[in-house]
């Protein structure tokens, strides 16, 4: 059976809770519009699946409300027709949400009949291929969902994930506890291991920061890891690339193969998949869209801009790692600045562009260098593009420290070990001075990615991510 | 399948400009056909303009632009400044207008800004 799951943005979950609340415990109802992410082949189970992402929560107009009690809710369907119209025009999926305040965890026979009617109505209006998602809020915070599609039997969603400054997973197939991770459970409680086991995490870039990130994720017990990189091991990487050997460098083994080999050898029951290639290649999209979290461990500005959009279109948090090791400019050895930065990119927070953590001109030059190296060299001699210059300094202890900061940010999204309720949007650690500060940045109102909600949770669009690609 | 972001498509449709999308190897771009040239300035009245679009567009700027036919100023019978480089795209040899573009406001600028830059470059060419 085709699997599907739903990601709710926390601001939508909050709005739903407010709309569905009733002082006398009556059932409530609301509408949603969802984006859709069609995954032709999941990288781990190789099956097609669909993920729905919350795009908008819509209140049912007061005049359409007919009746409600603690056992039922009824409303007129004029506004449902409106919802279907918008869904068709904007390429979204309509959803109905209702509550079971008494705590009944499931869909009743009455729900089956009502939803079947609504689905028929939606399909008559919007034609073949129409889908209808139904979400039920059990009590005041548990969500279950199913999808009406094609025939008259709805498909259950195996998971509803809510993401804001934390990741909350509500799943119908939670894994059994792991003995290997028992001591981690002593620190954080038993739930965290189950959450980690259910996660699919991508690591983009397997160099100085990416390779320790992969090691740490595997040893934390992340169930599914995807590594993406288009580079091979070189001798100059050996001092900081975890797991890489001289033999790997002699044979120019792809970095992703080294990552997969090392994780497999740990014997920790981690499923690791590797893809060698550039992160925005069409065949890598499916794999990225399948993930719950992405670590951006590249120093490539064009790649950062791309992941920035993925985070917003698909509601997949991107934890981006940056290392600033700036050589002195007076010819003397040493560094002017040394710092590690970890940023979490996700809707409501500022994006890479608004934080100033990407250089867009540099991004264009990187694209040109990759797509047309001859033209890039020519423009370099004509001084239209800047040369890449000398190799950047790298120190294994600094790259590893940045990696640890990043993976701890993932943990902060799962357990509240800092007591501050979720992750910090941006941490900047001065490696020479031994202090750290969290940095705030506001989305610019004219920013196409984070300044408006137009793209948040929109899912698949043509062209992909509404950019050239 | 479409190549251009939605706002660009809406703008070009609105202006009634005929666009041909070209994809060649990894490179993508649009040819804006029949762009009217300033009267009496060039050897022809209209030109096709090619704009190559980097993968991160519309967040990053397109850079230079390209013309067919190769434009010559009537005054002096020569090519304008910085248009001597030739590049082959979509089966044609284009005249590269080396007008560097590092001024770009993501979210505000789009194909309309680029078209404005092209028109201005054609207007002031010497």
Please summarize the sheet with the most strands of chain A. 9 strands, mixed
Structural class of chain B: alpha+beta
Beta-strand proportion of chain A: 25-35%
Percent helix of chain B = 10-25%
Strand-residue proportion of chain B = 25-35%
Please give the count of helices of chain B.
2
Radius of gyration of chain A equals: 24 Å
Strand order of the largest sheet of chain B: 1-2-3-4-6-5
Mean pLDDT over the residues of chain A:
94
Which spans of chain B have pLDDT < 50 for at least 5 consecutive residues? none
Overall pLDDT confidence of chain B: 94
Sum up the structure in keywords.
heterodimer; A: 469 residues; alpha/beta; nine-stranded mixed β-sheet; eight-stranded mixed β-sheet; 19 strands; 32% helix; globular; B: 126 residues; alpha+beta
What would your notes on this structure say?
The complex is a heterodimer of chains A (469) and B (126). Chain A has helices at 10-20, 78-90, 109-126, 182-188, 191-198, 210-220, 246-250, 255-266, 282-289, 301-314, 352-355, 360-371, 373-381, 396-414, and strands at 3-9, 29-39, 49-59, 65-68, 73-75, 93-100, 131-138, 142-149, 155-156, 159-163, 167-171, 200-204, 224-229, 271-276, 293-296, 318-327, 335-345, 426-430, 435-438. Chain A is an alpha/beta fold and 469 residues long. Chain A has a nine-stranded mixed β-sheet with strand order 9-8-7-6-2-3-1-10-11. In chain A, strands 14-13-12-15-16-17-18-19 form an eight-stranded mixed β-sheet, sandwiched between helices. Chain A contains 14 helices and 19 strands. In chain A, 46% of the residues are buried. In chain A, a hairpin with a 3-residue loop joins β7 (131-138) and β8 (142-149). The mean pLDDT of chain A is 94. With 126 residues, chain B is of the alpha+beta class. Helices cover 19% and strands 29% of the residues of chain B. Chain B has helices spanning 6-15, 111-124, and strands spanning 19-24, 27-36, 46-52, 65-68, 86-89, 92-97. Chain B has a six-stranded antiparallel β-sheet, with no helix packed on it. In chain B, β5 and β6 (92-97) form a beta hairpin. The longest helix of chain B is centred in the C-terminal third of the chain and has 14 residues, at 111-124. The mean pLDDT of chain B is 94. The chains are: A alpha/beta (469), B alpha+beta (126). The A-B interface holds A 280, 302, 305-306, 353, 360-361, 363-364, 367-368, 370-372, 375, 382, 384, 444, 446-449, 451, 461-463, 466-469 and B 1-6, 25-28, 53-61, 63-64, 87, 98, 100, 102, 104-108.
